[in-house]
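## retry 2 of 3
previous attempt timed out at serialization; input unchanged, resubmitting
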Amino acid sequence: MFDRFGPNYVLYPSFVIFAMALALMAWAPNGIALLGVGALMGLGYGTYMSLSQTIAIQVSPLDHTGLATSTFFILMDIGTGFGPSLLGSIVGATGYQSMFAIVTFVPLASILFYYLAHGRKAAIARRSTSRA
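## retry succeeded, writing output
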């Protein structure tokens, strides 16, 4: 779908699916619901992380693909390292249910960030190639 319809077609829904999973995680009343949330979370997070790396490599010059890949993973590792510390302080102050409700807005905010950083360029490029 990414190759056929472009990144926007796949990334915007993946952000929404991940946000839905986080919102449902705040609500999950039992283990069965938690399994469903895990599937949604894997679909949303797994899709946007792998496609984000693909975009980072595609937009970098050919001789900088190694730099783009390492920068992507360094920033991902920083988020993976500092994120739990920040979220732990939220859990300490509000509890897990509130923390998951609060972080629901992170992938939703990522929609705007993605649009400003790459999404609008991808949409313009898609329109120009579909007319040709």
